[in-house]
């Protein structure tokens, strides 16, 4: 059975065993664009990727399935070299611990996403970044664009253009890097991992 046929079986839930780790050449390849209209295979794969993220964010399900929490996943991480990413970014509770009016700040499967413009200003997460395909902590600021405009297609073949800033911008850039064969630590300054250039926005 091929990798994708296994992943899209109705009974299969994507788990940590499906996610390839650094050293696997698929993570370093530039993924191929998908064609439209999308095949059922690509639509189901996108839905399964989103389902994995939802399961990974649910404490009970995540513990039961042994999942690391994730907010983004790219098809190459499943050993499928296609330009498909899924992002599931929950909104935080308010200061009183009440659930947000909208559960997610961003919930999308993006086909053939690309950055079409970006800010001059750079940004990095104060706590650094992690990755489901990297089982070690790599300390340092991962330098990215503070704001990006992204174009992508949804599963119906409709084109979207969205402007992102802050945390959302960082998450989507991380996933787009995956379809271009780039891992987050490629963007850390090796000699000075926590060097701060003038104008760098640190997002806490």
UniProtKB/TrEMBL annotation:
The active site is at 175. Fe cation binds at residues 131, 174, 178. Its EC number is 3.5.1.88. Binds 1 Fe(2+) ion. It catalyses: N-terminal N-formyl-L-methionyl-[peptide] + H2O = N-terminal L-methionyl-[peptide] + formate. Belongs to the polypeptide deformylase family. This is Peptide deformylase. It comes from Streptococcus massiliensis. The gene is def.
């Amino acid at each position: 059975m091929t990798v994708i046929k296994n992943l899209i079986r109705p009974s299969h839930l994507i788990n940590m065993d499906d996610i390839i780790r650094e050293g696997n050449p698929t993570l370093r390849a530039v993924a191929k664009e998908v064609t439209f209209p999308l095949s059922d295979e690509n639509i189901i794969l996108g839905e399964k990727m989103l389902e994995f993220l939802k399961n990974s964010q649910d404490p009970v399900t995540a513990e039961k399935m042994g999942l690391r929490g994730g907010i983004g996943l790219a098809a190459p991480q499943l050993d499928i070299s296609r330009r498909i990413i899924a992002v599931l970014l929950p909104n935080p509770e308010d200061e009183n611990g009440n659930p947000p009016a909208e559960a997610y700040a961003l919930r999308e499967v993006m086909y053939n996403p690309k950055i079409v413009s970006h800010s001059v200003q750079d940004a990095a997460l104060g706590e650094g970044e992690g990755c489901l395909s990297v089982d070690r902590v790599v300390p340092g600021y991962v330098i990215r664009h503070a704001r990006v405009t992204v174009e992508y297609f949804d599963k119906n073949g409709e084109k979207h253009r969205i402007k992102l800033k802050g945390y959302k911008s960082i998450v989507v850039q991380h996933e787009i890097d995956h379809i271009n064969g780039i891992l987050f630590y490629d963007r850390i300054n090796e000699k000075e991992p926590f060097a701060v250039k003038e104008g760098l926005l640190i997002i806490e």
